[in-house]
Design brief:
single chain, SH3 type barrels, Arc Repressor Mutant, subunit A, 2 domains, 5-stranded antiparallel β-sheet, globular
């Protein structure tokens, strides 16, 4: 799962895809509404690749959390972010039993589920193992090298004709 081009902008709902980068801003497109606009350096922009969740041990990257959720849900939608926060937290405990209940707020859990459902609906979530298998299956074949002078002569003959 590669979420480096997917960002969250503080104060704006939803997720955005980075399209281009300017000198003082980046141009983004809303994943749900498909609207494009510039996001400036003064906006708080967070890449989903860089976001982590507090656990009792080490922090867990959001991409790893989404991998666990995807495997646990068999690629289906998660609970709606509009559910009771206690229900969302209980479900999160089944996926990540060591997440820090005190430092992860209800709003964070709601965003986690909302973003998961957006990414799952649009097909951004895939298991890493599938990508590796696909790459191994589609190895490019080496190209044959033209080695004879006769092929050059044939080309020149065909051009004259």
């Amino acid at each position: 799962m590669d979420l480096k081009d997917i960002v969250s902008i503080s104060g704006k709902p939803g997720l955005y895809k980075i399209l281009a980068q300017g000198k003082n801003n980046i141009f983004v497109e809303s994943l749900t509404e498909k609207k494009r606009f510039p996001a400036y350096a003064s906006d708080k922009i967070s890449s989903l690749q860089d976001i982590s969740i507090y656990t009792l041990d080490d922090d867990l990257k959001l991409t790893d959390v989404y991998d666990l959720m995807f495997k646990n849900l068999d690629g289906k939608n998660a609970l709606s972010h509009k559910e009771n926060p206690k229900k969302l937290r209980d479900y999160l405990l089944t996926i990540i039993p060591t997440y820090d209940y005190e430092r992860v707020y209800d709003s964070d859990v709601k965003k986690l589920f909302q973003w998961y459902n957006i990414l799952q609906k649009l097909g951004f979530l895939q298991i890493k193992e599938e990508k590796i298998v696909e790459k191994k299956a589609t190895k490019p074949k080496p190209k044959a090298k033209p080695s004879s002078k006769s092929s050059t002569k044939k080309t020149s003959v065909s051009k004259k004709a």
